[in-house]
Specification:
About 35% of the residues lie in helices and about 25% in strands.
């Protein structure tokens, strides 16, 4: 027997797989909440063996566990209530036979979108949600789904291989793209999750090199999460961060006042590591 975890919102529920599940407003999150009070990357639940741990990701409005705002990782148990923004998620423990490792159990979801429609949110699978994201850059590919599942199930070697290939293609692609492209956002999250899992700065270095080469600005919340991970790892792992700061300090005229403040704050937070 093993303990499985699910989170419920009203009549809807989704299983939490081994590894990390990000809760937030961003489309790349394993649990996507369409709520203005929710940060893009708000909180994370990490499942390992028979344990589940909740951690706030420096969210704007904080994460509540059973009515108390958390400031450090907290172990979860059956019946715990997690509040993010205006939504309350209920954690359930389910004892069941140990599943086959050949793949996902039939009938479970590998992620959810929780969308507010009138007074009741609805839940759809990540796969269905991404099929709706038709844009000029096309639909999320099967490879992206494989990467998402690898990250959620803690298949880190597979995730590393997929991420290296995705970064290489982004750097060599002749077609213009954007950091807001869902495929790019999944790559960014994957690099940060690998850095957090392995506590290695090399993945963050790749992230910043990608943004420098493609001349992308990193949004404030993503930059804040990257700074937190860099401080936790204790090193920058290469020239990526320094090159990113150098590039945008040379192009400050292209930034808004708010972006310049974000850049200055980030530089102050990582200066000791450079």
């Amino acid at each position: 027997m093993e303990t499985n975890f699910r989170i419920k919102l009203g009549a809807h529920s989704v299983e939490l797989y081994s590894g990390e599940t990000i809760i937030g407003r961003d489309e790349t999150c394993g649990v996507c909440l369409d709520d203005d009070q929710v940060s893009r990357r708000h909180a994370v639940i990490t499942v390992h063996n028979d344990n589940a741990v909740l951690m706030d990701l420096d969210s704007r409005n904080g994460t509540m566990l059973n009515g108390v705002r958390i400031t450090e990782p907290k172990a979860l148990k059956d019946g715990d209530k997690i509040k993010v923004g205006g939504q309350t998620l209920l954690l359930k423990e389910i004892e069941m036979e140990k599943p086959s490792r050949q793949g996902f159990r039939r009938g479970t979801l590998d992620g959810v979108h929780l969308k507010k429609k009138s007074s009741s949110p609805t839940m759809i699978s990540i796969d269905e949600g991404h099929k709706r994201q038709q844009s000029g850059s096309g639909m999320i590919t099967a490879e992206a789904d494989l990467l998402r599942k690898s990250l959620q199930m803690g298949r880190w070697t597979e995730a590393e291989r997929l991420l290296k290939a995705r970064v290489s293609r982004l750097l060599s692609s002749p077609d213009p793209t954007s950091p807001t492209d869902p495929r790019v956002k999944l790559t960014v999250e994957g690099l940060m999750r690998l850095a957090q899992h392995e506590m290695k700065a090399v993945w963050l270095d790749r992230l910043f090199k990608l943004f420098v080469v493609l001349k992308w600005w990193m949004e404030g919340e993503t930059l804040k999460t990257a700074a937190r991970l860099l401080r936790a790892v204790g090193q920058v792992g290469g020239k990526g961060v320094k090159d990113y700061l150098s590039y945008w300090n040379r192009h400050k005229g292209e930034l808004t006042e708010e972006q310049r403040e974000v850049l200055s704050r980030f530089e102050g937070e990582v200066r000791i590591l450079l």
